[in-house]
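User: Hey, quick favor. My workstation is busy. Could you predict this chain's structure for me?
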Amino acid sequence: MENIYSEEQETVKTVKARRETVDFLLSYSKSIQVVDYKKHKFEVTLN
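Assistant: No problem, here it is.
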């Protein structure tokens, strides 16, 4: 297993996201709220 990760990767592609995608993901992550109720956790998306 360690041999797989110790080898250097020759071809690494950098992924570039559009500004609209980044803005969408940031606004979506800001709208999520986690609510704890007893022993459960609920994820609520605020609109």
